[in-house]
Sequence to fold (354 residues):
Amino acid sequence: MKHIVLIPAYQPDEALLRLVLTMRLYGLTVIVVDDGSGEDYARVFRSCGEHAVILRHTENRGKGAALKTGLAHIQKEIPAPYAVVTADADGQHAPEDILRVITAAEDAPGALMLGSRAMRGRVPLRSRLGNAITRAVFRLSTGAAVYDTQTGLRAFTDESTDWMLQIPGERYEYEMNVLLQWAKEQRPITELEIETIYQNGNQSSHFRTVRDSYRIYKEILLFSGASFISFLVDYGLFCLLRLLGGALAFSNVTARFVSAILNYQLNRRAVFRSQESAAKSALRYTALAALILAANTLILKALAALGLPAMAAKLLTEALLFAVSWLVQRKWVFRSAEPEEMENPIADREEAAA
Fold:
């Protein structure tokens, strides 16, 4: 099986050339994507061009776009079978680890192999905290445990190339989207521990903390915003009805019904941007809303029975059910497509063989 290393590069230094030369010594085919680095970096790419295929973007389009450009080239120009490993251009991945990860991927067709950093030693605080937060968000949204969600060292075989090209995202969010979709479809994800390397405190990274963090976390941020707006409507109406003398259960059910309609529309149109018919997602959302409502009312009554004031009990109940609602909506209510509806090269091949 042919081994290919795909390296997206934006304004690289000599570390890129060293990586290219080492990968060629290991016998790998090397493909480098110049993501609009500009003329000041042309010399580095010319040096690499003697040992690798160089693909170019005329302007910076982002890491996700660069990876897709490389994958499209591989799909068109290199016949299967092959394994692809993606690696960063700044020397953050040891060549021996790159080889280990792609070799492991060859032995596990259809799986996503991750080079997972243990985050030991002198790791920049920004990187340590960012990985911990992303790990928690990923576990919450998918139920899958992945230690290093931000690693750029990933490998897979040719069965997954076309599927990878369909994942949305042009910049750093693309790598998170791949993990989210991979976990959503319950495709196997395996982690191999690799050396943790940060050159000069990771100063070579082009990750823009605020902008790129938003791209990665925007779904949960939008969901949180929609939930907060719906909560304000729910809580405000609940308080109003209680002040007007409404019974606890009546006030809670009425407020929840009104806010649920608003929340459904916000999540369908702005958060998950579901392309599925409204009838299908509305039916699933109604089922979820009924279960959440039942749980909401039971928890609310239990907290009130313990002596907690009704309005404080309402706040605590909403916080408890927030994570459950997000997870179920993402994985079930507003799912982009059923797994069997997604194009699956592995299943197609097995069906053809049968």
